[in-house]
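Form 7-S
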Amino acid sequence: RRLEWIAALSVTMLVCAVVLVMAERIQRVLGERVVVAVERLMGLILVAVSVEMLLRGFKVIAHQI
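Output:
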């Protein structure tokens, strides 16, 4: 199972590196409006994940009390 995790992380790191290196070209191809929309969507997802983690933390604290 460890080999699968290493492969998955390696592929993810490779994709992230390619996206970061080609970020300017990708932005020119997609256009400013699409980039702004994706930024807002990623911000919304980040807020949703953080709220879920916060609520899960409150649940753990409530069960410990």
